[in-house]
Design brief:
The protein is an alpha/beta fold. The chain has 4 domains: 217 residues, Rossmann fold (3-Layer(aba) Sandwich); 99 residues, no CATH class; 190 residues, P-loop containing nucleotide triphosphate hydrolases (Rossmann fold, 3-Layer(aba) Sandwich); 99 residues, no CATH class. The protein contains 26 helices and 24 strands.
């Protein structure tokens, strides 16, 4: 079937309606190709699935696997240069080939989409209310007053506080989580039969993510719609999906009910994805076994299994023709084989061996051995102190006016935090966006006298450093940034990028040549790659190059700002292993900032939880994760999705109400009290303490490495 949406006047404008026994959406043999300078890119290659009313289908896979292209093809939003074939039926009515006028009537009322980036999806010059009213009036015969009332009602459904007032706000006046909720309100405005959510929780804090997932569940209950959840977060899929489709190289390589795919997966790719995930509910001293290599280029169709070059179980037969998606052997080996189309299917020629030999993740992907850290003194207080922060404060003036500026307030970005890092130790700094993590890092890296408090780096007080001393300390204090592409100069080859700090510090050419070669090997890359440019490397490889550059001057302390957040799950595991190996081998200390608390559990020794510029809990990572005492820490941990469907179904989440208060006007007393779940259960007399004073960090249990800033701390279990 031709893809281009040419206007066909003979096509009826009658909209698809729900029919008993017919799935809401059925996709058969969907193929999408794009033209490029190097030839045709086969982005989607024969995808098949269906979604019934009230059902959630999770589509997962690495970047470039074809997830988003599939969703855009369903919506009819692909560029005209794309070529589409196959079948996409909504309530049994074919969508491919329909003209744009027909699709415009269907989009919004029968199927809708929640986009990944709500700021770019919302029009910045119109209020949220105007955009909701437009979406309603286009598809329904409503007066402006009725549509406006419905818009207010929708904002209330998705949990926007004071919807009567916020409906008049512009998108830039909403936080990221509120913008995403507004997008969901728009998606459900006309009670669609199918909602496609494309990475709806990416780049959101875990607390906001938990709110958004609850909103999506509410939206589904309100509309009875089918939902396609596209995400790279397997924990989200475990908690929301009824069925899962795993995509690789433009095809589904495993699909079925969520329990079958998570607990009885028979495709090495799926097994690798699930196994390489660090989990917040489990402590592990083992390294992660990553899925080595990168997805194939889709300029040429594979002649064998596309995963074979990365698969530890691959044999010659795997290269002879691409395997079909067939019933999983574990399904057919049962006493009463299930042959329903919705059951577990897999595209792997080794699936029978995996089932019969009962191969697990550890059998397929051998766990690398970690280097022993026995040289470190078990008593952390006896080790060298590489960083001490005492009572650090950083305020920013809040000004108004363009020409005649006047100060109208103060932003309390960091308001008296204290922490320390010892040799060979990793301290993780966690908290929601806006809590002061990045400001803390910048104050430490600046190596100047802070506005308040004291910073001591490797025994040197930054307040008294001279310029020459500051340059010397910077050799021992290096940083690895979040976005490896943005932090590497695209005009320079890798050799020059890694050599830059060495040249700046006056090392000779011979030393630089040997040191750069040593560094590139240290981070697991080939010296032959040194003449290549950043664009020639994958995201994980670029992050390894950034780490190599940071290690060039043999530092003692590395500041890691979200070093794995932009990486796919399979690549992330390799970078985490590298960081752990380097710490053990070189005796490094890390200040690790992350949103992903699962990674923090795996890599950190100690963790500090920040809220509105203050540390509310700090201590040994096992103590903080397994026995959290502060209500904010408890809410933060309970919001983390776990890639375990059974646990996700039985967990009780603590959903924080509202967004982070403004640091320019923090609440009086305890700063967390406005969102605190425990505060609501206290008596009036007990609440008075929370209203009057901000508690200091205190030890709740002598002999345990854990402090918290709560008037009424109580240990609860969140996993």
């Amino acid at each position: 079937m031709s893809k281009k949406n040419k206007v066909d006047e003979s096509v009826s404008f009658e909209l698809p309606e729900r029919t008993e026994g017919v799935p809401v959406l059925e996709v058969k043999d969907l193929k999408v190709t794009f033209p490029s300078e190097d030839g045709k890119v086969h982005a989607v290659r024969g995808v098949n699935f269906k979604v019934n009313a009230g059902e959630v289908l999770g589509i997962v896979g690495e970047s470039g696997s074809g997830k988003s292209v599939t969703s855009m093809a369903i919506m009819g939003l692909l560029d005209e240069s794309a070529s589409i074939s196959g079948s996409v039926k909504l309530h049994g009515v074919e969508l491919l080939g329909k003209n744009d006028n027909w699709m415009s009537k269907v989009r919004g009322i029968k199927l809708s989409m929640v986009f990944q980036d709500p700021l770019s999806a919302l029009t910045p010059v119109y209020t949220i209310g105007d955009q909701l009213v437009e979406a309603l009036q286009i598809h329904q015969k409503l007066s402006k007053e009725a549509a406006y009332a419905r818009a207010v009602e929708l904002l209330g459904i998705v949990g926007i506080p004071n919807p009567e007032i916020r409906v008049k706000a512009f998108p830039h006046e909403f936080s990221g989580g509120m913008r995403q909720r507004a997008m969901i309100a728009m998606a459900i405005a006309n009670n669609p039969d199918l909602i496609i959510a494309d990475e709806p929780t990416t780049a959101l804090d875990v607390t906001i993510q938990a709110q958004i997932l609850e909103v999506l569940k509410t939206a589904q209950r309100e509309t009875g719609a089918a939902v396609i959840m596209i995400t790279h977060d397997l924990g989200v899929v475990a908690g929301m999906a009824d069925r899962v489709a795993v995509m690789y190289a433009g095809r589904c390589v495993e699909s079925g009910p969520v329990d079958d795919v998570f607990y009885r997966s028979t495709m090495p790719y799926t097994i690798g994805l699930l196994g390489s995930l660090p989990r917040p509910d489990m402590s592990s001293n083992e390294a992660l076994a990553p899925v080595e290599g990168n997805p194939p280029s889709m300029l040429k169709k594979p002649t064998g299994c596309p995963f074979a070059p990365r698969c530890p179980l691959a044999v010659d037969a795997c290269l002879d023709g691409e395997p079909d998606l067939v019933f999983s052997p574990e399904t057919l080996l049962e006493e009463n084989p299930r042959k329903d189309v919705d059951e577990h299917r897999v595209a792997c020629k080794r699936a029978v061996d995996i089932v019969e030999k009962k191969l697990t993740y550890k059998d397929i992907y051998p766990i690398p051995e970690l280097i022993s850290e026995s040289t470190l003194d078990p008593d952390r207080l006896k080790r060298e102190e590489v960083l001490q922060v005492d009572g650090l404060k950083k305020y920013f003036p809040l000004v108004k006016g363009a020409i005649f500026k006047r100060r109208v307030g103060t932003v309390h970005a960091v308001d008296g935090i204290s922490l320390d890092i010892r040799a060979g130790e990793t301290l993780a700094l966690v908290g929601e966006s806006g809590c002061g993590k990045t400001t803390t890092l910048l104050e430490i890296l600046d190596l100047k006298a802070p506005e308040g408090g004291k910073i001591v780096v490797l025994g040197k007080d930054t307040a008294s450093l001279k310029r020459s001393e500051r340059k010397l300390i910077r050799q021992d204090l290096q940083v690895v940034f979040q976005d490896p592409m943005a932090s590497l100069d695209p005009r320079l080859p890798i050799f020059e990028i890694i050599a830059e700090p060495l040249k700046y510090n006056g090392f000779n050419k011979e030393y630089i040549q040997g040191r750069v070669t040593e560094l590139i090997k240290l981070v697991g890359l080939e010296p032959s790659h040194l003449n290549r440019y950043p664009r020639h490397f994958s995201g994980g490889q670029r992050q390894r190059i950034g780490i190599a550059r940071a290690l060039a001057l043999q530092p003692k302390l590395l500041v890691l700002d979200e070093p794995v957040s932009a990486l796919d799950v399979s690549i992330q595991a390799g970078v985490i292993n590298l960081l752990e190996e380097l710490r053990a081998k070189l005796g490094l200390s890390y200040l690790f900032v992350a949103h992903d608390l699962s990674v923090v559990r795996h890599i950190a020794d100690r963790v500090a939880v920040m809220y509105l510029g203050r540390i509310v809990e700090i201590g040994d990572v096992e103590e903080v994760f397994d026995r959290p005492r502060h209500p904010y820490t408890q809410a933060l941990l309970s919001a983390i999705p776990i890639p375990d469907p059974e646990k996700e179904r039985t967990r009780k989440r603590i959903i924080l109400q509202g967004d982070l208060p403004s640091p320019a006007n923090p609440p009086s007393g305890c700063r967390f009290r406005t969102r605190c779940q425990k505060f609501l259960t206290l008596s009036g007399e007990q609440q008075a303490a929370c209203l009057e004073s901000m508690p200091d960090l205190q030890v709740s249990n002598p002999g345990v490495d854990s402090k918290n800033a709560c008037h009424y701390p109580e240990v609860i279990t969140v996993f």
